Amino acid sequence: MKKKKVVVGMSGGVDSSVAAWLLKEQGYEVIGVTMQIWQKEERAFAEENGGCCGLSAVEDARRVAEQLDIPYYVMNFREEFKEKVIDYFVEEYLCGRTPNPCIACNRYVKWESLLKRSLEIGADYIATGHYARIRQLPNGRLALRMSATSSKDQTYALYNLTQEQLKRTLMPVGGFHKDEIRAMAELAGFRIAAKPDSQDICFVPDGDYASFVEAAAGERSLPGNFVSPEGTVLGRHKGIIHYTVGQRKGLGIALGYPVFVLEIRPETNEVVLGNGEQTLSRYVRSNRINFMSVPGLDKEMRVWAKIRYNHKGAWCKVRMSGEDEILCEFEEPQRAAAPGQAVVLYDGEVVLGGGIIVGNH
Asked: Using alpha carbons only, how large is the chain's radius of gyration in Å?
């Protein structure tokens, strides 16, 4: 019987390297691919800006592929990454929202573009080192299931995958804990067994989002007013791209009590400040919905929901509030649901679906 062929997206990290090793052990014909997404040619820049898209990542991935004796390629996805991730990231910040670029990258680059290219070269599947599992449900649909280790679960950033993408995807590390994955990397003899996980957004490695957005947009973010919810001017801000809903530190204003960003108003260039209690809301509206475990929502459901990647989650009732809009009513008020972030809904361990937050009242 002919071996099934799988293209593994290899970042040079521990998880994707072990994913390739596991799949080869399981009898698949494995091809390693690193996605070239960095935007500048200079070697020094690409080397310095490592993460999952630097040249050092390519060298690490190539070395692992040699050890596994599998074909290895670097595929150019610069254009797709710029259009679907960087341009989106910049535009969202300019509009006063707080985007999650990893969600866009997963859906449109790592899956849509890589999957298309992989099918063209005769692959049956693509695979990644994400901590998530794929499960077929009694209703016939495919859905993501939380990984074996809750501290590493990455289903939040993958809620936007389609049924067709899930059908062609393998996630071999989702059933393991991180220490087990590192042990497998050592067993396989990989030099990267102790390599630390990348934390930052790969194209903003220094974490200075505002400077990146200004450089990409080619214009400075104009100063404006800090205002109270009632419209009273409280002081001056340095440009809306420097702030996000829920932010408390680095505001550069002292009012004698702790203040938080409640809202960003790009149309008037205002940043609304208030106290901690005012950041709480029981209601979160979202659009651009992707349903996963169900084809749609025909009645109100009680689900577990996360409003950002590191949110521990909370119970809410969710219902359709428009053709492409859901309303989550949380049982306990939640802090700082930021427009531009995703709300992801869980039915037990399975991803029901999710969408992009547009409002928190």
From this structure: 22
Catalytic residue among 52, 202, 316, 328: 202
Answer whether 294's CB lies under 8 Å from 141's CB.
yes
**Catalytic residue, candidates 52, 53, 105, 316:** 105
Q: What are phi and psi of 67, to 5 degrees?
A: -65, -35
pTM for the whole structure: 0.92
**Among candidates 11, 293, 299, 261, which has minimal Cα distance to 128?**
11
Q: Could you give the dihedral angle defined by the CA atoms of residues 123, 125, 126 and 128, in that order, rounded to the nearest 10 degrees?
A: -140
Determine what percent of the chain falls in helix, strand and coil, rounding each to the nearest 5. Answer: 30, 30, 40
- Catalytic residue flag (residue 52): no
Residue 337 pLDDT more than 60? yes
Q: How confident is the model at residue 151 (pLDDT cuts 50, 70, 90)?
A: confident
Q: Are 326 and 288 in contact (CB under 8 A)?
A: no
The predicted pLDDT at position 50 comes to 47
CA distance 10 to 8: 6
Two tokens, residue 226: 């800090």
